[in-house]
Amino acid sequence: MATATRVKELLIPLRRYSLKVLFQSRKTLFTAPGGDTTQILKTKEYLQKLGVGVEVSLELTPDLSKYDIVHVFNLMRPQDIYLQVMNAKKQNKMVALSTIYGPYTEYEKRARGGIIQIINQFLSITQIEYLKVILRAILNGEFGKGTFYYLINGHKRLQRKIIKNVDIFLPNSPSEMLRVADDFKLKKFEYISVPNAVDTTKFNYEKTAIAPELEKYRDCVLCVARIEGRKNQLNIVRVARELPYKFVFLGKAGTNSTKYMEQCLQECTDNCVFLGQIDHEMLPQYYKLSKVHVLASWMETPGLSSLEAGIMRNNIVVTKKGDTEDYFDNKAFYCEPDDIQSIREAIVKAHETPYIEELGEKIIKEYKWEDTAHKTLEAYQLILATKQPNDIF
């Protein structure tokens, strides 16, 4: 792991020239946007403010002659970034990896539902992911050169090949890095923890004005997330039946989650409303109106909407699965995704408790996109100064 002192020692000689970095990720980054899409675009924006030249390419084998570093994102979707990493090494470029590594093992085996959940009982998580890639290729037409290599190598083998060619890891938290190290039996590795973050200029409580037509949602329980089984909105809907609060859900149905969305709507009571995907510029108003934000997901690392809600003076209810405790410590209300009573108790406590001021203070201090950009730049400068590939197995 890179220490702060070591990083500072390496920064001085690299200030003499401007870095040029190419961001790369899955082919569906913009056609099926997710948290990784936001992470990539906001990191790019704030690195550019530091003078780093950043471009985004989803091509598999672009010319890299004008770049110093290739930065790839999302180890959970390895088929495209494998070819991007191999292309970088072929052209003698250093590689940084934002792991975004959060396997939904429990969800796949315990909560997905249907015939797939039954099949998943007999499969390992890598076999489950392999099956999902096949299904995406059949159902969504997601088949390309990367898929071909994926099907030949298998899920974990392809991930391992990526990892062997990474010069530095940029997990969103220390616990995420430990998860990668444990799953792939890494002996030594270079990493800098780079937090997910919030745009403090956009999500500004004092400067956000509320449109009169939205006042009906004041003091609601809000959930901002793609509507899908992994995000667990159905259990929140079931909790809402027992509570007097208004529940507002923002987000569109995920790919292949139309039936899940329909089930959520069928089980809705009068105090629930699904508003679909709204203009992102409207989000601050909903956060300012709400009193509690809930992400009772099967895995979060930690969930961008939790950070946004927290800085907008919401108490937050979050899953215990994943890396949420690294971010929120004792300043959040935790629940188990498969336990209705646990979700209910957490929501009630969060709603009845005055806003936890220390939560907003912590987010402003540690989880701004400026912080993300500075940590990312430290990682770049470290590997460019050392030029030593890591023997991590």
Please state the oligomeric state of the protein chains shown: single chain
The second-level CATH architecture of the largest domain is 3-Layer(aba) Sandwich
**Number of beta strands:** 11
What is the CATH class designation of the largest domain? Alpha Beta
Mean pLDDT: 90
Radius of gyration: 21 Å
Which stretches of 5+ consecutive residues score pLDDT under 50? 12-16, 389-393
The biggest sheet amounts to:
6 strands, parallel
- What is the total domain count? 2
Q: Based on helices, strands and strand pairing, what is the structural class?
A: alpha/beta
Spatial separation of the terminal alpha carbons: 15 Å
Tell me what you see in this structure.
There is one protein chain. The chain is α/β, with parallel strands linked by helices. It folds into two domains: 4-197 and 368-386, Rossmann fold; 212-365, Glycogen Phosphorylase B (Rossmann fold). The chain contains 17 helices and eleven strands. It has helices at residues 4-11, 35-49, 78-90, 105-110, 114-120, 125-140, 145-153, 155-164, 174-183, 233-240, 258-267, 283-289, 304-311, 324-328, 340-352, 357-366, 369-386; strands at 20-24, 53-56, 69-73, 94-98, 168-169, 221-224, 247-250, 272-274, 292-295, 315-319, 333-335. The strands form two sheets. Strands 8-7-6-9-10-11 form a six-stranded parallel sheet, with helices on both faces. Helix 13 (304-311) links the parallel strand 9 and strand 10. Helix 1 crosses helix 17, helix 3 packs across helix 7 and helix 10 runs parallel beside helix 11 (258-267). The radius of gyration is 21 Å and the shape is globular. The two termini are 15 Å apart. Mean pLDDT is 90; it is low at 12-16 and 389-393.
